[in-house]
Amino acid sequence: MHVDVIPTINEAISDDFVQKTVVVIDVLRATSSMATAIEHGCSKIIPVETVNRARQLQAKGQMLGGERYCKKIPGFDFGNSPIEYMNESVRGATIIMSTSNGTRAIQKSLKASHVLAGCILNASACARAALAFEKDIRIVCAGTQDQFSLEDGLGAGLILHEMMALRADLEVGDFGQAMHSAFLHVRDGLEEALFRCKNGRKLVRLGMAEDVAFCARPNVFEAVPVMRGDALVAWRPAATAN
Amino acid sequence: MHVDVIPTINEAISDDFVQKTVVVIDVLRATSSMATAIEHGCSKIIPVETVNRARQLQAKGQMLGGERYCKKIPGFDFGNSPIEYMNESVRGATIIMSTSNGTRAIQKSLKASHVLAGCILNASACARAALAFEKDIRIVCAGTQDQFSLEDGLGAGLILHEMMALRADLEVGDFGQAMHSAFLHVRDGLEEALFRCKNGRKLVRLGMAEDVAFCARPNVFEAVPVMRGDALVAWRPAATAN
User: Fold this and answer.
1) Distance CA A172, CA A163 (A)
2) Among A19, A69, B99, B210, which residue carries the largest CB count within 10 Å?
């Protein structure tokens, strides 16, 4: 099984995803928020590219979440802080979500056989889910405005590390090897690394340091958001036994 | 002073290089060959993009070097093995060189104030030279056919590491931080890492394992090829004292 890591959405080629499993990573903060919502009982997350599309799609009882320039969109129920999605109102809800980079990366990945939302929080579960689909894997770092973001690369390195622990026969491309080494070098200081990267510093400036610390905790969630039709729903490891 | 690492030539934006110092890295093998030739007394290396251009430019007494598909070009004096450039005939010579990725990366960097050819062999000297120019720095990993190559990333990480040892005030972008961490993780096994990456494995298959081992030795050269007009010439640390 071959695993490649793609540095940014910009470098992702949709046609390359056909017959593959794609793991989209936007550690700060879209896929961390998605994983948090799904872990806390959210039924469905519908990722959309634009704010207008989110508003158009909204049916009765559905909620809206997302950000532009790191801030909650006016009139939306939730922003893009994962901590907001631990709210009791999330349980059983359908949330339509639009963020600057993460939801765009998911939309660009839809030609894949399977699309998962991965982050540091659900890395181990995400590795198990991706391997269970038994196809070659592309881990797509969302990045920020077409630039590589360190936190996504470290998340990819961690997910790769978890995959390697589960399977000995993985062939990992050059960029994946680099991200794996980078992760291993900072694994005992992952939170500091996230505070040191560009998006981490930006969130601290905006008063959102708590989000950075929250997103830096490896393997605390079991649920993996996976695309089924137009929405992300929970995939849990136990499901493979059925 | 700000330092960014660019993953491949493809992502390099020429206009971004204006008023910057650019270090081009093609560890396997173009910039390693250039550094070897300059270290061994070559006067000038003229990097050109095409084989035809190399032949057109050749004046009496000048030699031709380079490769396509890793192999020496018919009729050329040298291929792209750094070991060939330790030849006595290199001393004082002008060599016109064309390779698949490295010379293209240099051509794309010519809007910069200074363009240096860096590799693992001359990393420390290259770091000193780049800092001496007192401008923001872009380290451009040449990559291979627009794909990231691990050996270039590790070379960038090593050069960054040498820069950081010389200056405490460097601001390093996210991709540079990732490459620095990746280098630190494999620094005691740099040769194995080069044999494990895609181009390393390819060179071994082609019977060129010796080249891979040669290029994996950090800081054994003092000379840095730097563009002056249309050619790379030697920059030596001592030159700063003049």
Assistant:
1) 11
2) B99
